[in-house]
Amino acid sequence: MEGDPTFRLFREDLCDVCGACFERCPVLELPEEEARREMEKLIRGDTGSSLVLRRCMTCNACEFACPRQANPYGLILERYNEEGKRRGLPFIAKFIFPNEPENMWTTTRVLMGEDELSLLRSWEENLKVPRKEVLLTGFYNNLVPFITRTSLLDELRPAIVGSDTMFGMGEDAYRIGFLEEAERLGRLAVRKFSGMGVEKMYCFMVVEASMFTDVLPKKFGIRCDFEVELLDHWLLERLRSGKIEVKKRLGMKVTVHDNCCGRYLDGALQDITREIAERAGCEVVEMRHARDNALCCGWAGTVPTLFGPTSSNPFHTLLNLLRSLYLRLREAEETGASALVAPCPGCYVFLSLIKVLTGSRMEIYLPLELVQMAAGETPAHRNEERAWDILAVTTNLVLRWAFSPKRFFPRPVDIEEPLPQARRGDAARIRLFGRLYRGALVQNPASRKLIALCVRALIAAYGSYLERKRRGLLGARAGGG
To answer: What is the pLDDT of residue 3?
Structure first.
């Protein structure tokens, strides 16, 4: 792609505008004719009234639904790319760029204890040492470093490496259409690990694994010379062989959240997660949207709000995030399961956030935590505490928005540079919000119930607003056509 103005992710020569992509989309679920019209508009570049660009959660289901492998998801990303180059991104998007002081990793570290900070420092230092075998933490995993405190990983612990500046090997940049940056970061990452002499890489997150095995080689022609395996597969093999002994069958009814990137690697993670749960003694029940038709956890519900007429309003972004997260949590609750298993640490964090904000009784676990419990260990399981921390850093970001430029053009990320330090004022406010949200004023039954009632009412009102907007958009277009 680099330097090639004719590069396309979308294969227009293969697309017959059948509409299957948006008809089978778990978010849009459009009638066939409407799906066809939406695809025609995207191909023409007529994006002003595009329902797809306003609703797409970048879950990539359309890519796998396409019967001709034309990659309609690539077309969506190309349109986002054009918009980003033209207008930049709203201030709130600084939350995901690791070279911005407002990023979620820098700001969340303000609330971490030394036990977690020392882990993060050791993983960054390990990147400087040549190794044939590594366990890559994954950048969202670095929001919850406590999950690695288990004897199950002792065999791999000396080789744990990772840095948030690697930006998921460009996955988040790819997801919001910053395609040149995704390609550049992918090349840098492959060069970095090849230079370390890595021959085998275990990935804590399917995000990074799918970038190395699917996105970078198939979309950008970037291939790595090392083998990539999911940590979840490594755990499952040890369960199968008896190297990890199941001492206590858990006896829980669980449902599995199939995350967006889990569709890559031929969908292997979907089966792996379910088998891990079953071997740990759980009964698995399925949500309405599951496997290749699964809904995004909701975190990517922020993506469509970064573009379009309301993109500079952070409240629109936050409301869409809450609504999207809640849709997925409600599907899990409707199964009757007592726990939701999320194999992605990013999904784990943000589903935990909507759990605490809506007062849900649904437990959220990583597959690793299920294995720990079945093996007789007690996981740290501090996901709810970290969810309140994420709320604290988000509150500070919204306050910063009121006094900051409303848009910015992202700078290239340097994977060799450390994270920027949180500004003194930001750190002070984040600590203040952190104490508030974890303190008795919030963490009491009456306050938690009131928060849950308000959040659920807000989500319902915003959902009604979106539906009215959708009907108005379709009505106006039908009248014009």
So the answer is: 46
Q: What is the reported pLDDT for 136?
A: 97
For the chain (481 residues), the mean pLDDT of every run of 10, in chain order, is 64 95 94 95 88 91 94 95 92 94 96 97 95 95 95 94 93 94 96 97 96 96 96 98 97 97 95 98 97 92 84 86 96 98 96 98 98 97 97 95 88 92 96 97 97 97 84 62 49
Query: Which residue, 395, 399, 295, is CA-closest to 353?
Result: 395
Strand 283-285: give its sheet, edge to edge: 283-285, 253-256, 339-341, 363-365
Is the torsion defined by CA of 166, 169, 174, 180 positive or negative? positive
Beta-carbon neighbour count of residue 48 at 10 Å? Answer: 9
* Closest to 263 measured CA to CA, from 317, 195, 214: 214
Q: Which two tokens stand for residue 439?
A: 């303190």
Contacts of 42 by beta carbon, 8 Å cutoff, 6+ apart: 50, 52, 53, 72, 75, 76, 79
The closest alpha carbon to 245, from 377, 129, 403, belongs to 377
Strands 200-203, 133-136: pairing is: parallel
Q: How far apart are CA 8 and CA 2, in angstroms?
A: 12
Spatial contact of 264 and 214, defined as CB atoms under 8 Å apart: yes
User: Residues 367, 339: contact at Cβ < 8 Å?
Assistant: no
Helix locations, 45-100, DSSP H: 51-55, 61-65, 72-87
Q: Are 389 and 359 in contact (CB under 8 A)?
A: no
Q: What is the 3-state secondary structure (H, E, C) of 309-368?
A: CCCCCHHHHHHHHHHHHHHHHHHHHHCCCCEEECCCHHHHHHHHHHHHHHCCCCEEECHH
**Strand pairing class (160-161; 89-90):** unpaired
Strand 407-408 to 89-90 pairing: antiparallel
List the structure tokens of 406: 């409303």
Cα 229 to Cα 165: distance, rounded to the nearest angstrom: 22
Would you kindly state where each structural domain of the chain is located, as residue ranges?
20-87, 90-96+113-443
CA distance 195 to 220: 20
What's the rounded Cα separation, in Å, for the pair 347 and 220?
A: 26
DSSP H or E run through 256: strand 253-256
DSSP 8-state code for residue 227: E
| pLDDT at residue 49 in the model | 80
If you search the block for the tokens 């597959």, which residue do you land on? 367
Which pair of structure tokens corresponds to residue 145?
């470093």
Give yes or no for a contact between 295 and 351, defined as CB atoms under 8 angstroms apart.
Answer: no
Task: Quote the crossing angle between the two packed helices 314-334 and 383-401, to the nearest 10°.
Answer: 160
